[in-house]
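Dear colleague,

Thank you for sharing your sequence with our group. We've completed the structure prediction you requested, and as agreed, I am returning the results in plain text so they can be pasted directly into your records. Please verify that the sequence below matches your submission; if there's any discrepancy, let me know and we will rerun it promptly.
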Amino acid sequence: MDNVNAMIIARLRRDARASLSDLSAEVGVSRATVRSRIERMEQAGEILGYTVRLKADTNHAPVRGLMMLAIEGRGAEKIRHRLIGIGAVQAVHSTNGRWDLIVEIGTETLEQFDKILFSVRRIDGITRSETNLLLATKT
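Please find the predicted structure tokens below.
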């Protein structure tokens, strides 16, 4: 992906309803170029769709965080399935480096968040964890 496409996508992430004229002015290319690049990215499967973010989406789980987990042995798949079954777990990501899994958690309160962390840490096979609260999301 070149720089122009990356700039178009970055702008669409902030506002998927941005007009071709606005995109063209921000990126510094013609409207026709923006249109053809978006169409090519859609056809290539780089852009899969567009969405709407609602205020309610962020209020649903105002306490959010990322929990990084180290897994003992080869139990990551079994642990991933257990994590997905926890209601407050929004996503589980495999990764490389120091941590084996990164878990996105969202709850209504800090107390609920703390209970989720405690229950996750008790899962057999998890050897270490580190959690970071998400304070603000800028889009």
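Summary note from our side: The radius of gyration is 20 Å.

Kind regards,
the structure core
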